[in-house]
Amino acid sequence: MRRNVAFFGAAMFCVGCFSLYLMLESSTTSPRVMNDQDGEVDKIEWKIQEIEQELKKNHETIIRIKEMLSDLSKGDNINVDKLKNLVDQFEKSQNNKKKFIQPQENKPVLLNQTQFSKTGITLSPDTCELAEKPNPVGPNIEMLQTFATLPFSNPDGGVWKQGWDITYSPSRWTTDRPLKVFVIPHSHNDPGWIKTFDRYFQDQTRHILDNMVQKLEQHSKMTFIYAEMSFFSTWWSQQNDATKEKVKRFLNEGRLELPTAGWVMTDEANSHYSAMLDQLIEGNNWLFENVGVRPDSAWSIDPFGQSSTMAYLLKKTGFKNMLIQRVHYTIKKYLAEKSNLEFMWRQNWDLSGKTDMFCHMMPFYSYDVPHTCGPDPKICCQYDFKRLPGGKIACPWRIAPVPITDGNVAQKAETLLDQYRKKASLYKSDVVLIPLGDDFRYDKPDEWDNQYNNYQKLFDYMNAKSDWHVEAKFGTLRDYFEALANREKVKRGERPDNYPILGGDFFTYADRDDHYWSGYFTSRPFYKRMDRIVEAHLRAAEIAYSLARIADTKKSIFDSDKNMAEMLTFSRRSLALFQHHDAITGTEKDFVVVDYAMKLLKSLENTKKIIQKSTEYLMSDGNDVFTLDETRQSQDSIPEKQIIKLSSANERYVVFYNSLASNRSVIVSIWVNSPYAIVKNEFGQIIQSQCNPVWTNNEQYSTDQFKLLFVVTVGGLGMVRYSIEKAGRGENQLHSLAKIYFHSSGNNYQKIFDYQSDRSDVTLENREISIKISRNTGTLQEIKNKLDDITSQVKVEFIYYGTRGTKEKSGAYLFLPDGLAKQLSSPSVFVRSTKGPLSSEVNSFMKNVEHKIRVENAGGKHLNI
């Protein structure tokens, strides 16, 4: 087979070579000179026609070869001889052809026949992947296409509401290939949601982990998995050495697993990929440094949709397999129908498979016990022994679990096995994963005992029934993936032969009907923005701190302020905590978001202090001379700018820090107390500057606060100092006051800036682009590229959605509009423009909307909307 594939790959290569040869041969210039211009045109037209004909024939041949290769790769060897004959015929036809060029003066010119070598062709796989892999190497399940083609009709599937009535043949399982069942006790702990992080830890998490140590010691066959390192590290810091050694022993025995081990179970929609990675690093590094363990299996059961970015990050950080849960119910059904719930998750841009991550998708509605043993939640709930009569929670289907006894174990085991078999039939391997847990489970010792004792009786009975062909036991996530790999005869994380390759992501998530979880994309936008600000400051602080540490060869400055490293750690962990899927999402309670925000604010203050101290050391020998450009009074306040008070007697210095590795040249804006200033760069040269007003309302501006704009150039990872001093009116020829235009109603009687009324459309431009804004609508209409002289028409509209009048409405999680979007109308629009040599902008004030468009003149195409 491998030899045939190599041969056919070589054949494809030959077809391409012949095609290129004919194109070149046909386009070769004749040695004769055409006597007239019409003859030359005729010659060119003839060449084009000949090339088109040859390309068409070759294209048809290539298509036929590809079709035969596809059939061959699927095991169809019928077309082998036909394919060989096709290639031979093609080669023969090309060798027998005599090439003519367009006649000159009606005299044909015959070229010598080209002789092709008949020797064998050997291709290296490094040279031509087709020689080894005739099939396309991209995903064979592309989610973008899948979403576009599925009906999303949501028919009633019976007991599995979003699926179908699953049937199976018991003969599927044999003595040689039994059904392997791994029941995996777990407890999902949200680091903040209905309660704050600290309240959850005190009320539940610490008890869960205390019980874990006690019950794993007591029950020798019990297993447990736990994922959130933010909680686990807090608990670990309170344990004695004996307890820590027990935990390490459980890990070494394989009865305890800490999958993913991120600081949190991160959101995968709102979080930036760098923050997703940082929280993963923070958790994994803590675990390795304190416990000596590195996880290689990932567990993501609660984030509201799953991103291929997370799969990529896991792959690049050494993980071998992963599990996901919250995927649109129609997608789950579609994959389950073809037993494709386990797949190699590949990045769409990857043509080699280097990014492949083996992924298991849970098939049912939720990760709680009623929806994990099989398709019928009414039955599965009867095997959640936390819900035994007398407990705090019961089964919604009104059939309570009962203890397993000698009298009922046969019937109970057979019923449970039926669910296991139905679930297993949705997968390929006959190894089935059964999570046993939910949010904050196992916080009481009784639950550990009830689950263990009753399930162990069921396992013992099942395993003793040789004709049932089942092996059931407690296990971990790693146990499951290891058994699956062994069953499929591959290494863990590798692709079994018949498993699909999937590309794309799993957004937007819906758990039922048209309940799309896209509301959280925009919930609490203030704190989503705060997240990005803290993230940027944290990265800048880490770099500045590192540069200062390197420069501090005497270890004098930073040894005296050792808490700076602790401040960085606190900031990293606070930002990591906010990546939790009930934090940055905005789906937590109000008082919980305040708790998160207080931590973020403290982190922001910490990072600013670190940047300040590091800059002082690098730029001024460690003297306390710098303050930051803005402050926040509270966790829910907008930043306030520091006003630099200028003096004509003394220069004020401003340091600009570039945390990027590339050079930057940008327009900066600082707030000063004078409209007239002199700005000097690091070489003491006066540079161009511009003063803009600070507006107090649509028409009025402040008379003691102004925005000073100028271009700053900073090298990669560099710091640069500029100086500013107060100037008199007209003293600095390189300083300009912006001009103000009111394009609708409006007047301004202040005399600092020139202003005038202008009832025409607004034009803003720099050296490379020009834009036009309508004075009537206040929106962008036209963008012109002045270099290419290309004008593009633009239409900007603001729209809004209403919410349904039913009981179920849009909220923090869901987006449930009452129909299509409606255009936001505004009875009047106030349009104001501010123009200067460095920056010009238009502000349009509408009902509920301020639309701002800015064009900057800093040496490039800068358009901000």
Automatic annotation (TrEMBL):
GO cellular component entries: Golgi membrane
UniProt subcellular location: Golgi apparatus membrane
Spans through the membrane: 5-24
Protein's name according to its UniProt entry: Alpha-mannosidase
EC code: 3.2.1.-
A Pfam family that the UniProt record links to this protein: Glyco_hydro_38N
Membrane topology: Single-pass type II membrane protein
The keyword Transmembrane appears for this protein: yes
Keywords tagged on the record: Coiled coil, Disulfide bond, Glycosidase, Golgi apparatus, Hydrolase, Membrane, Metal-binding, Signal-anchor, Transmembrane, Transmembrane helix, Zinc
CDD domains: GH38N_AMII_GMII_SfManIII_like
Cofactor list: Zn(2+)
Pathway: Protein modification; protein glycosylation
